[in-house]
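Q: Give me the 3D complex with protoporphyrin IX containing FE.
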Amino acid sequence: MRSVTVRRYGRGARWLHALVYTGVLTELVTGAWFVLIGYEAGFVVGLTDVHEYAGFALTAVVLGGIVVGIRGARTFLAESVRFRRSDLRWFRHWPAGLRTGRFAYHDGHFDPGQRLANLVMVVLLAILLASGVGAMYLPGPFGIAVFQAHRFAAYAITPVLLGHIVIAAGILPGYRGVWRSMHLGGRLPEEVAERIWPGWLAGYRAAGTDRSGGYAIGAGSAEPGTGRAPTPGLRTWRGLWRARSGSARKS
Ligand code: HEM
Ligand code: HEM
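A: Here is the predicted complex, encoded as structure tokens.
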């Protein structure tokens, strides 16, 4: 029997994420070539062009994504800057959890480690995009200073991105199964969400609604074989709000 699945991200977020990582990985690989092998050979095979065009495309995707998905961008930031004292407990148990899957409780959409990584990635990516474009157009010493920032931001973001990929690909036992939340429909088994985002899952169940996609858990969108009956009227936030205010009026 197939397990019950929950959905963490809608189609827009998944497409944006895929476009961003295609661009970032292109920049990382070509940038690593410049540092490790040198510019001359890279220039001959056109890698400097690839780096610059992909850089502009990435900048456009990020800015476009923020404009089109401004509400999602705000929620993403708000969910990433939260901090509670209990997060320290979560961090203490994290190294063991990577192996065992037993993490301390947290109530966020992101676990505290993701929140920290999100903030570091946002700041460094902003520096990389701005300094990359700046290095191309700013004259003399400004251009050089900005290029230094570009290089150091690239060095700093590399281990964070590698860490994110290892964790999000579900290579470590504690995070097994996570990769599905950003790929192939964005649904992942409920037990994976229970293990990693217990507070988020409780809110998702209580709402009876898929926050990211507007589908109710167990409604028409549920995986076949879950044994859950459709929940009419709870397919969207508006439906949920109506149902709630209706029941509040009745009581
Ligand atoms: C994730 C984003 C990016 C990463 C990781 C990255 C990484 C790098 C690295 C490691 C280098 C070599 C630095 C050195 O020689 O020490 C480099 C060079 C360069 N980067 Fe980026 N970069 C990114 C985005 C951008 C963007 C958005 C632009 C501008 C559109 C850009 C423009 C450049 C330029 C002009 C160079 C010099 C080589 C060339 O002429 O192509 N980069 N980048
Ligand atoms: C290399 C550029 C990448 C960047 C800048 C990036 C950025 C992000 C950010 C900011 C998030 C939000 C939450 C979090 O921190 O987990 C995220 C989520 C996620 N990423 Fe990436 N990512 C990249 C590459 C990848 C790759 C290659 C994978 C492939 C496995 C991946 C898989 C995921 C998954 C599964 C999530 C969802 C985790 C959740 O449910 O909260 N990412 N990514």
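A quick observation: The beta strands are 5-7, 187-189.
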